Amino acid sequence: MKKILVLYYTQSGQLRDILDSIVKPFVEAGDSVTFEPIVPRQQFPFPWSGFTFFNAFPETFSQVPLPLEPTSSHAYDHFDLVILGYQPWFLTPSRPVSSWLQSEAAQAIIGGKKIVTVLGCRNMWLGAQEKLKRHLRRLNGELVGHVALVDRS
């Protein structure tokens, strides 16, 4: 039995639906799947207002960390694979995800692990993925796969 950790931040809930679909075959095969949401202390609204959207740009693009709820103790267990689900914001991983990647929890959880990144977006995700890859290298995570699901709308 494989143990899989699914770390994710979703603003609308769509990414959680995507991740549920991706791990369904593993669950059906009897593998252990643990979901761990990345939760900012101050939630971002959905849908965005114009002001909130543009106000989020500078700190997001610069990857300024924001306060997060603590990562649960279960996420520190041994896992064979980590799936990291995220959304790109302004050509950058969403601010909650980039904040988590700069945390002590990320250092403890990602190091030495095989990582698959999954994103759901409208377009223009490549810049965000390149920034995320730099974080994974710094944390000594091994990127073994990437899934980009792009909305047509």
Write up what this structure looks like:
With 153 residues, this protein is α/β, with parallel strands linked by helices. The chain has a single domain, classed as Flavodoxin domain (Rossmann fold, 3-Layer(aba) Sandwich). Helix content is 35%, strand content 25%. It has 6 helices and 7 strands. The strands form 2 sheets. Strands 2-1-3-6-7 form a 5-stranded parallel β-sheet, sandwiched between helices. A two-stranded antiparallel sheet has the order 4-5. The longest helix has 15 residues. The radius of gyration is 15 Å and the shape is globular. The relative contact order is 0.19. The mean pLDDT is 91.
General form: globular
Q: Can you identify the CATH class?
A: Alpha Beta
Mean pLDDT: 91
The overall number of domains is: 1
Please name the CATH architecture: 3-Layer(aba) Sandwich
Percent of residues in beta strands? 25-35%
Structural class: alpha/beta
pLDDT below 50 for ≥5 consecutive residues: which ranges?
none
End-to-end C-alpha gap: 39 Å
CATH superfamily: Flavodoxin domain
Radius of gyration: 15 Å
Strand order of the largest sheet: 2-1-3-6-7
The beta-strand count equals 7
Q: Level of helix content?
A: 25-40%
CATH topology: Rossmann fold
> Tally the helices: what do you get?
6
Q: How would a textbook summarize the main sheet?
A: 5 strands, parallel
